[in-house]
Amino acid sequence: MPKLAAFPKAFMDQLCVDGTMTVRQWIDLAATLDIDGLEFYCGFLEFKDRANWAVSRRIVEGHGLTIPMLCCSPDFTHPDPAFRRQQVDLQRGWIDMTATLGGQFCRVLSGQRRPEVSRDDGLRYAAEGIQACLPHAAAAGVTLVIENHYKDNYWQYPEFAQRMDVFCDLIARIDAPNFGVNYDPSNTILAGEDPLELLRHVKHRVVTMHASDRYLADGTIDDLRREEDSVGYAKRLRHGTIGRGLNDYDAIFSELAGVGFNGWISIEDGVDGIEQLRESVAFLRRKIARHWPESS
Fold first, then answer.
1. Is pLDDT at 232 greater than 50 in this prediction?
2. DSSP 134-179
3. Statement: residue 227 has pLDDT above 80
4. pTM of the full predicted structure?
5. Which domain holds residue 194?
6. Distance (Å, rounded) from C-alpha 148 to C-alpha 142?
7. CATH code at 55?
8. Mean pLDDT value of segment 251-262
9. Which one of 21, 268, 278, 290 has the largest count of C-beta atoms within 10 Å of its C-beta?
10. What CA–CA distances, in Å, run from 156 to 111, 160, 176, 214?
11. Do residues 69 and 266 make contact, with C-beta atoms less than 8 angstroms apart?
12. Among the listed residues 162, 233, 161, the one whose alpha carbon sits nearest the alpha carbon of residue 191
């Protein structure tokens, strides 16, 4: 049966920018949920001190939970080779962080969709960057998972491999036992595409999943596109309670169960408070029990 983790989507600035929330506070808050683990983000301010990696792991395990996943945002599509080498070094450091936290999965991305970088060059840069990190990950016992992403909170441009055709072309270039897909259905909607169509293309390579339900507070996808090149997420974009947005989780889980998926599902909701996150957990527990009944 898939296991549930939670990601601090609502508290990213507090944990990564102004320090008004400590990692311990997030752990203690999340531990009140019916979950099995926590997904961490490499940019937590406290994680600049490596000693805090092991400390955080002990706190999490003290609650009877684990840290299976580390969310990272390497930017491999910069035209400057020195910048790309720096991103490889950063990702290798985040792989070490994942291992110290006791994690199995470390996210990678392609990078930002810079207007001066061509499709062919971007694919080559991203594939080379990921491949350069795979031996380090294998030595650490870590699997790299690439997400069909929209945009990191702190990026200017959206994801280079946001669109389905680019994403599928990129993963086709990388064949390694410790490389797979972190599937996020909501991000496909933001690309103006069908989450189920993407899933049918990549389902045999999905090893982890981000669960969320997105909606537009106002305007259209075209309005969102016009705002993509501003830093961070567009204000019209919202994360809602899972089960109340645009995703069909019965169809998604049916596809995943059909290929034997049994990995971690990390929740990226709760932006309106812990009770919203609690509702999302309850919804996903019901759906998991329905689609993986033999494991219940």
1. no
2. HHHHHHHT-EEEEE-----TT-SS-BTT-SHHHHHHHHHT---TTE
3. no
4. 0.92
5. 3-295
6. 19
7. 3.20.20.150
8. 98
9. 268
10. 11, 12, 30, 20
11. yes
12. 162
